[in-house]
Amino acid sequence: MKNLLPRFLEYVKVDTQSDERFNTTPSTKKQWDLAKKLVQHLHIIGMQEVSIDENAYIMATLPSNVDKEVPTIGFISHFDTTPDFTGRNVKPQVVKNYDGGSIVLNKEKNITLSPDYFKELTNYEGQTLITTDGTTLLGADDKAGIAEIMTAMEYLIQHPDIKHGTIRVAFTPDEEIGRGAHKFNVEKFGAQWAYTVDGSQLGELEYENFNAATATITFKGKSVHPGFAKHKLVNAIGLANEFLNLLPNNEKPEHTEDREGFFHVHHITGEIEHAEIALIIRDHDLEHFNARKALLTAISEKINKQFPESVQVIIKDQYYNMKEKILPNFHIVEIAEEAMKQLGITPIIKAIRGGTDGSQLSFMGLPCPNIFAGGHNFHGKYEYIPLESMEQATLTIVKICELTAQRF
Ligand SMILES: [Zn+2]
User: Fold this and answer.
1) Options 2.60.120.260, 3.40.630.10, 3.30.950.10, 3.40.630.30; CATH of 4-208+322-407
2) pLDDT, position 241
3) How does DSSP classify residue 374?
4) What is the pTM of this model?
5) HAMAP family in the record, alphabetically (predicted)?
6) How confident is the model at residue 9, as a pLDDT?
7) Is-catalytic flag, 257?
8) Where are the domains of the chain?
9) Which one of 80, 91, 210, 282 has the minimum C-beta count within 10 Å?
10) H or E segment at 312?
């Protein structure tokens, strides 16, 4: 376990920010810098079948050490960091024996990490926290996951008394721009199921996410001189406004939580002859999700009755709730839950209000819930992670391998 922290510190110092403006995989060349290092490290700890493909997807195997047939399972994390906040020149600070008070991240810029605002900090009194210097993100999302998987594999290699089946690991680029699963070769990976180690606080275990779609709604108007417009002019802006008014007012991101779905209008442009609305639809429940899509069509039909062929709705599905693929194989979740319990960790099971690589992978044939990596405040300068949570994540991975071999 002693390599966990140095490994993590080494990984976060490499800038691996992804960028959705580029269509290559990885989207940014600098992701190769860490990818190559990870390949080396996998070799060094003694992993087998270490491979990296032309898109920087890394895979490796820890061979089974039991005689019986045990399902092959996998662990996955991503090495890119979000485009939302700079990941250049990360200078991690290690705060030992955290006293429960405010941590000065940057004296010059007067940036502090305070439990007044980030209440959960007090849970970590006495622990070792890794923070930023207030000018960058940390990159615990998801270099913590990588360091934990790497260290768990090293631990299993060094402790052959712990019995396990074949374990596959994968490190992927471009998760933060929604493309981490796109070029993932599920067949080559060859696992029956896997876990993304990409959750937040200690104990998180997630196997539900949104069903997601985008909708583009276009409105056609008719411009006529406003002085002579009675019964002639059709204002596309007005139609767009009417459309928005017919959406349920409370079903917006700012009014919803937990398992409540929503419509989120994120873009609107308009003039008299043409207007356009872009929105996203999110719902955990598949029936509700479909009802939301049907509502958009119904509203457009209503307006079209009054102003024929003035509204057009184009809906595109983005991803689906992985629950559908996990429930028929629920032992995947039970094993992770049991692993945490045996380690004295209270599992925190909640529905993700977003998507994960795991949800895409689940629909590509690799059921893939998400477990905690231990960090907090992802995607910004207040990001931090307790070393103790990282150790627990590492042990959870080890325990999942062990329990899988026991169960089958
Ligand atoms: Zn992540």
Assistant:
1) 3.40.630.10
2) 97
3) -
4) 0.89
5) Aminopeptidase_M20 (MF_00550)
6) 98
7) no
8) 4-208+322-407, 211-319
9) 91
10) strand 311-319
